[in-house]
Amino acid sequence: MVPLLFMDIYVNGVNQLSDLEIDKINKPYLPLVSGQISFTTGVIIVASSLTLSFWLAWTIGSWPLIWNLVSCFSLWTAYSINVPLMRWKRHPLLAAICVCATWALIFPITFFAHMQTFVLKRTTIFPRSLIFVIIFMSFYSLGIALFKDIPDIDGDQTFGIQSFSARFGQKRVFWICIFLFEMAFGIALVAGLTSSSLLVKIVTGLGHAVLAWILWYKANFVDLSSKASIGSFYMLIWKLLYVAYFLMPLIR
Predict the structure, then answer these.
(1) Rounded (5°) CA angle 106-170-208
(2) CA–CA separation, 241 vs 252, rounded Å?
(3) Which candidate in 31, 55, 99, 141 could, as Cys together with 37 as Cys, close a disulfide (CB 3.0–4.6 Å)?
């Protein structure tokens, strides 16, 4: 968790360092744009976090963990920095691939491999539970990838970043995201019902049905003209995912 915490600081930090002008329009409250932190301080924090992340992973000695960090560093550096062949966030397909690859492939596979091979000293396997998480997160992370740009449409259009929201409109992308989230919860519900345990069927089935209902109910009250309303719903998406994380281990 600690090496990944530092990598997360690097990923978010390098994105903010690269997006100073855009964030003046989209997110003027961020520490760099608002002047709470200087650009130089931001660079020091980002560089230090990256160094600590790799140093800790190398000290721990887990290759799945090291590959996790190398993959995240490579993808999200390419996503953010404005150099030739990089700045993938300008291209909606590449931007979505970064999010989906991280949450649906890199995280579940390397975390599982770290626990399985490095911590528990067991042979590498690819169980049904891991396959379920990958499928669930493929739908959910794609929804997140599309949704995160909905409130940023003004700055993206100004600086030529052709996000899906900028190209197809906020409302259409919003409801596509809701469909993807509901598909993820539906897959989880069905997967839970295939369990041999009656208790698991009840807990996972009812749990994911409630999450899906909350999402749908709240979606109907989102005001797409209000950044505060969109931002509040975006935070709800993450909260629902965190609740789903507690249900995932039951589906085996």
Answers:
(1) 50
(2) 18
(3) 31
Question: If you search the block for the tokens 């230090």, which residue do you land on?
Answer: 48
Dihedral pair phi/psi, residue 212, rounded to 5°: -65, -40
What one-character DSSP code corresponds to residue 248?
G
CA distance 60 to 115: 13
Give dist(CA 118, CA 60) in Å, integer.
10
Q: Are 178 and 216 in contact (CB under 8 A)?
A: yes
pTM, two decimal places:
0.86
Report DSSP letters for 67-97, one per residue. HHHHHHHHHHHHHH--STT--GGGSHHHHHH
Q: What burial class does residue 9 get, using C-beta atoms within 10 Å of its C-beta: 0-12 exposed, 13-18 middle, 19+ buried?
A: middle
Report how far residue 236's alpha carbon sits from residue 178's, in angstroms, rounded to the nearest whole number: 12
Average pLDDT along the chain: 89
Both structure tokens of 130: 């891991």
What are the backbone angles phi and psi of residue 195, rounded to the nearest 5°? -65, 150
Tokens read off for 17: 């360092």
- The Cα–Cα gap between 92 and 220 comes to 26
Q: Which comes out higher in pLDDT, residue 187 or 30?
A: 187
